Structure formats: C-alpha cells, structure tokens
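User: Okay, second chain of the day. Same drill as before: sequence in, structure tokens out.
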Amino acid sequence: MQLNSSSPSLPQSKLQSLRAAAPILIGVSVMLSLSMGLRQSLGLFVQPAVQELSLAVADFTLAIAVQNLVWGFLQPLAGLWAARYGFRIVMTAGAALYALGLLVLATATGYFGVMLGAGLLIGPALACIGSGIAMAVASRPVPLAVRSTVLGLVSAAGSIGAAIAAPIGQGLIAGFGWRTGVFGFVALALIIIPAAWVAGRVDKAAIPPEASHRGDAIAAGPAFRSAFRNGPFMIMAVAYFVCGLQLVFLTTHLPSYLAICGMDPMLGAKALATIGVFNVLGSLFFGWAGGRWSKPMLLGLIYILRSLMLAWYFATLPTPDSTILFAAVMGFLWLGVAPLVAGAVAEMFGLRWLAMIGGIAFMSHQLGSAVGAFGGGLLFDLMGSYSLAVQIGAGMGLTAGVLQVLAGLPRWPGARRAAH
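Assistant: Same drill. Structure tokens below.
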C-alpha cells in the first residue's frame, strides 16, 4: 500500500478553518449517529412485531429490504438535489421524514403499516441524512490534509448511535413492549432535525483552495457518466454490494438468530451496542489509515476479514463470549468503509458531485443490503436456518475483497484523470 502525499502538519490558517467548520461537523455527526444507530437497531423489533401482527419474518425483512432499495436508488438524486438546492433543505426534510416513518411503524396494525413506516418512509429519509450525504458535508469545509481523518471522526460519531439506541430499544421492549420501543426511537429521531439544520451551514462554507478538483467544473450529466467509465470506481461500487449484504444481514437477523439459539434477548442488544462501540475505533483507524495508504486495498482487507469472521461465528453454536467477541471485531470493520469510499470518490471526481457519484456506489451497497435483509429472511423461512445465507454472504465477501485488493495494487492507474 502506498503513502498519500498529504502532509500531516497544518499551518495556523488551516487550524482556523477547522475551528470554523466545527459546528458543521458536530451537527452532521449527531445527525449521522442517530440516523444510523436507529436504523441499525430495527432488527430488535422483528420477533416481537411479527408475533403480535401475525407476520412472517420475511414480511418484516421485506420492509427493511425496500427501505434499503429506496435509500440506495434515491441517494444519487439526494446528492444532486443537495448540490443544486443546498444541503440544509435536503437534510432537514429527511430528518422530519425519518421521525414520521418511525411513528407510522410504532402505530402499525399489519403488513401495510410496517412496509410504509420501516420501508417507504425511512428509506428516502436515509437518502437525505445517511452516510452518503454526511460524508459529503464533512468533506467540504476541511483542509485536504486532514480530510480522511475528519471523515473517520464523523464516521466514528455515526457509530455511537447504535451503542445508545440498541440498549434503549431493548430495555423499552422488555419493559413495555415493542411499540413503546419504537416510540422511544421517535423521540430520538426528533433530535436529528436541529442537528441537520446546524450541519446545513455547510451551504455557505468555502471549499479550501487546495481541495479544488477539475471534476468540480463539469456539469452533473458528464460527471455522472464519467463514473461509469471509470474502472476502479466500478470495481469499488460492485464490491460495495457485498458490504451492504453482510452488514444488513447482521443488523436484521442477528437478534433473531440469537433468540432461536436460546440466548438471552438482551444479548442481541448488547451485540449491536458492542458493534457500535468498536465501530468508533474502526472508523477512527480507517479514517487515519486512508490518509496514508491505498483506500481500495484497505477496503478489500475489510471485506476479507469480515467474511472470515462470519464463517467462524456461524460455524458453531453462539455463546455470550463468542457473540461479544464477534460483535467487537465486526464493529471494528463496520463503518470504516464510509471514510474510505468517500475519500476515494473525492480523489477521483472532486467535491462538487461527491454526494451524487458516491450515491451511485451506495446504490450498489443498498442493493446488497436489500438482498441481505430479505434474502436472509426468505432462506430462513424456506430452510429453517441461516446456514446457507451465511455461506453465500461469506463466499461473496471473500471474492469481493480479493478483487478490491487487486484493484488497489496499481494505485488506480489513471484514476486521477477520470473526471478531468
């Protein structure tokens, strides 16, 4: 892996620009933390909701799959809208829609309510306030020398939400039922609205001169088409499919898997919280590492290590200790991909269309997420176990990881010319 040319030292002017960007970074961190934390904890409601509403597991997970598909397909549009009309209006509207979706889910009386709330409303909301927009916001007001580290910090903040939301949700479920748990999530989601408003200050923030890129001068259409002509970007986008498949499979099905194996229901919440805690460390590390070594190679290593952990954990019956260890390692390898992908896209295409072009890769990620959520539930309903789903996910992850590492070896020949 090769070193980047970015200098770790910062002159006084750069430090001042970082201080000026602090409110934006804090606001976007809170927005990302709560939006991702709540979304990653929805798996806690699968078993109690399907039992009360007389649904199949696949019915609930289909709503999660639709959520991910809608999120993915709208992500490039959300990025385009943010570039044209401003991040503030896009993020604030998305935050309000997120709270509405959770409210509809909390009052659902059947399949339609679950699909509308968890799928058709939360999906577009996440396109406006999720990691794609958050990484674009965090990239714009900071010096190039610390961009990757800042992206890692914001991504790390996005991990804290799961450590907060999962225990709160499980505690409310245990004490008052799953609907009360979702209402608790509604209250947390309302905090996202002012956070998104503050992060919207980025609309008036100046992009540092050294962060300018030739890709910033071209229009949306040519920028969009250039992404599909860029081989390294397309490899990264295809590998991102497997990333989404593995992660959403876990957040959706791990609590159910542990319940089936006779584990304490609270263990699922502890596992999700552990993922969130170690996610912080992993995001910080990979944000730092992405400023020094090849981002595609780091991505490939993440996918390979995740797949090996999946194969190991599901090959034996879970115990509390093995579950927490598994969650810790997976957490470390979780959202570290976000600063790496965002940083790679910014290097290839510049900042102006980062949210839109990054959204193309994220659309692939969300297709994988839909397969992981619904496919895992469908295979479980058909076969009575998660064994085949895990085998498919681990095998695809190893393949994607190797391809991504190979793509990173030559350090993207011609990548910097792709959008020029």
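The chain is about 80% helix and 0% strand.

User: Thanks, on to the next one.
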